[in-house]
Amino acid sequence: MEDQPLVRKAVRGALEDAGFGVVEAGDGEEGLSAARRDSFDLAIVDIWMPRVDGIEFLKQVRAIHADLPVIVISGGGPDAPLEVKAHLAQAHGAHEVLFKPFEDDELMAAVDRALG
């Protein structure tokens, strides 16, 4: 889940190049709808998004898929220092936090760790 189309496209490309199937969502509300319809092996979630942000997604998705591995990505935002949001994401069950910009190999290493 990522509200920035270019970042979403880059993440999708890296995952597809590695052989993963990808379902995209532009915000947490779309992501929660997808999580209610289907099961997933992993979610990659931006923190700052419109409607339902990444932290709220983490809180709500646990009721749907309690063991879903989640990687949080963020480049910062308006309401709190990035480190505070990263800590909050981990407190709500994020497996890892990647700070934008990140390289494809960093993303794929995080995916490998999350899928263990």
UniProtKB/TrEMBL annotation:
Q: Does the keyword Phosphoprotein apply?
A: yes
Q: What is the lineage of its organism?
A: Bacteria, Pseudomonadati, Pseudomonadota, Alphaproteobacteria, Rhodospirillales
Among the GO biological process terms of this entry, one is: phosphorelay signal transduction system
The highest taxon in the source lineage is Bacteria
4-aspartylphosphate found at: 46
The record, for PANTHER family, names: RESPONSE REGULATORY DOMAIN-CONTAINING PROTEIN, STRESS RESPONSE REGULATOR PROTEIN 1
Q: Where is the Response regulatory domain?
A: 1-115
Keyword Phosphoprotein in annotation: yes
Instruction: Please tell me the species this chain comes from.
Output: Caenispirillum bisanense
What is the protein name for this chain?
Response regulator receiver domain-containing protein
Keywords, A to Z, come to: Phosphoprotein
Record-linked InterPro entries? Bact_response_regulator (IPR050595), CheY-like_superfamily (IPR011006), Sig_transdc_resp-reg_receiver (IPR001789)
